[in-house]
Predict the structure of Isopentenyl-diphosphate delta-isomerase.
Amino acid sequence: MLLQNILISRLLLGGSAFTARNGGRQSSRLIHHQNKMAMNAASSDEDSGNYKLAQDPSELFDIYPAPPTKAHFNAIIGPDWGDDFFPAPQPTGKVKKRSQVHKDGDWHRSMHLWIYQSDLANDNVRVLLQRRSPYKDTHPNMLDVSCAGHVNAGDDILETTMREMEEELGGNGNIKGRYSLEDVNNSRMFTVTSAIEGETEKHGKYICREYQDVFILKWKADAPMESHDFAPMAKEEVSGFDIIDGQELILKLRKGDEELVPRSGQYIDALAKVFGC
Ligand SMILES: *[C@@H]1O[C@H](CO)[C@@H](O)[C@H](O)[C@H]1NC(C)=O
C-alpha cells in the first residue's frame, strides 16, 4: 500500500535529479526520467516563487570546523572526538549565506526530529515521514525524517526544533502547546555528521555537510497517529506525510531505498536502537 502511494507521488510530482554518494542508488534510466520531469517542473515563473518559499538562499548559517578526519564524515560524535566536538560541536565564529554554504561544502548545523508512536501489538513502532517538496534545493520529492531544519546563525538548537516542528508539522494547530522545551530537550539522542553531494535541475550541484542533532520524540496521543494529524504551514517546504513501520523504515534505509533521503550506517544503527527494532 505504502509502496503504491510512493510510486504515484513520484509520477505526480516528478522526482529529484539526485545523485547521492552516501548510499543512495538510482538507476541511470530513473535519473534520466527524473531530470526530464524536473526540467518540466522548473519552467514557470510561479515555480520560481515556490523555490523562494521553499528556502531562503540568503539565510545565514554558523560555520563549524570539519570533523577530525574523513572517517568522521558520516559518524556519530563521541567523547573521543575531543572538547571541540563533544558533547556539542563549537562554531568557528564565521557566518555564511545558505546558498554559499551548499556550494562551498562548509560544515553547518541542523536538527532532525523523528516522531514515533509505539505499536505494542506488533512489538514495533510507527514513524512519521515527511515528503520534501519539489522545490527544495536538496533531495526534492524524497521521503525524509519527520521534521528537519537548519539552525540559523546564533540560534539555539532547542528553540529551532520547537519552531521547525510548528512550521513543518503544525499548520493545522495540532503541535502548538503539545510539547514543552523540556520534552524536546529530553528527546535529544545523538549528533551525527553527514556529508552528501548531489545535484538538482534547478539549483545545480550541492555539497551539504552537516552536524545533525537528532531528536526522537514520542507522539503524545492515545489515538493511532495518522498522516492527516500533520500539516505544514507552507506547502512549498513539505508536500505531504507518510507513516511507516519502524522495522520497514530501518530495512529500507539500510538498503539505500531510492525514495528515502540516505543516512549513514551509524545513524541508522542508532535509530534502530532507539526504536528497538
Ligand atoms: C537540556 O538537558 C541537559 C541535560 O541533558 C541540561 O544540562 C540542559 O540544561 C537542558 N537544557 C534546557 C534548556 O532545559
Observations:
- The longest strand covers residues 204-218.
- Residues 158, 181-182, 185 surround 2-acetamido-2-deoxy-beta-D-glucopyranose (CB under 6 Å).
- The first helix runs from residue 2 to 13.
- The radius of gyration is 18 Å.
